[in-house]
Amino acid sequence: MRLHATREEIESVCARIRDFGYKVHTIEGEERVVIGAVGVGDVTECLESLTAMPGVENAVRISAPYKFVSREFRQERSRIRVNGLEIGGSEFVVMAGPCSVESERQILTAAEAVAKAGARILRGGAFKPRTSPYDFQGLEEEGLKLLAKARQATGLAIVTEVMSDADVGLISEYADILQIGARNMQNFALLKAAGRSPRPVLLKRGMSSTLKELLMSAEYIVAHGNPNVVLCERGIRTFETATRNTCDLTAVAVLNELSHLPVIVDPSHATGKRSLVPALSRAAVAIGADGIIVEVHPWPDKAASDGAQSLTPALFHAMMQEMKPYIELWKQARGCGATA
Ligand code: PEP
Ligand code: MN
């Protein structure tokens, strides 16, 4: 719709779309309303009819199978708002914290350390997807309460994983961002439930998933009502054994071409090795990611999960310092640097 299209104009366009037999999905942006029509019908006739209506700026057919998340649908990059912060905007957003929430002392120590080093969002799993049923499964609701305490103590927003559609309501009460993990990228019941949540979603790429599949999963969330999705490249399965996964960094550039959604990189799960995390984090900045999610544990040797890939607070602080000049270049490239 045009910039200042009236409510009546918007309503008549929606009605016309329904007359043609399509379902209407309206996305209310800050500046303009975009109306999506999904379904099967006479496309050419519908487009012609809509183009002529008052208030309509343009009517186009989106050829990609993922409609709302595609660049064809929206040319400008999406900015996802979380607690006064924007992912996909003028800041390279660093999310950091332990793999799992283990105790009050652990999460508060981690939160304070990562906040001090410049992270804006605290990560920490309360519900953990573990390969073995005998491994630590997470503190569940107790863990969510500890995350809320850490948010109160530091002001950091919280991102935490939701593994089941049944838990979306509970986790949405505590978390600022819902994380959908690699293993659940195609859990369609979960994607639909996350689509009904008021919280933004961090959707991780499945370890054997194509980028098209990732975008189709994001489309599920958006189609069910939640436009606030952040994509995450966290490494995929390949024949290589030197690293836990193989980071498909090119995916960031590809996703930026195909979609308007923000994209972040997880250098911890991508490598599985703490020594490799700083190099990959710098690479994520260079390729134009919108941020990173990094595992940091106050005592990695004692971590209940993913200790080998977790940075100590001191290593995280050093990495954040080293990243500063890269992030300055990133800002200039985005047109929002100090000298831009
Ligand atoms: C995690 O973030 O701790 C996690 C389990 O990640 P992934 O789903 O990418 O394996
Ligand atoms: Mn982990």
Helix content: 25-40%
Instruction: Identify the bound ligands.
Output: phosphoenolpyruvate, manganese (II) ion
Sum up the overall morphology in one term: globular
Instruction: Please summarize the sheet with the most strands.
Output: 8 strands, parallel, barrel
**N-to-C series of helices and strands:** HEEHEEEHEHEHEHEHEHEHHEH
- Summed up, the helix count is 11
| Share of residues in strands | 15-25%
Intertermini distance? 32 Å
Q: How many β-strand runs? A: 12
Which blocks of ≥5 consecutive residues have pLDDT under 50?
A: none
- SSE class: alpha/beta
What does the radius of gyration come to? 21 Å
Overall pLDDT: 95
Strand order of the largest sheet: 5-6-7-8-9-10-11-12
Describe the structure.
The protein has 340 residues and is an alpha/beta fold. The chain is built from eleven helices and twelve strands. The chain has an eight-stranded parallel barrel with strand order 5-6-7-8-9-10-11-12, surrounded by seven helices. The protein has a two-stranded antiparallel sheet with strand order 1-2. A two-stranded antiparallel ribbon has the order 3-4. Helix 4 links the parallel strand 6 and strand 7. The protein is globular. The mean pLDDT is 95. It binds phosphoenolpyruvate (PEP) and manganese (II) ion. Residues 99, 125, 129, 181-183, 204, 234, 266, 269 line the site of phosphoenolpyruvate (PEP).
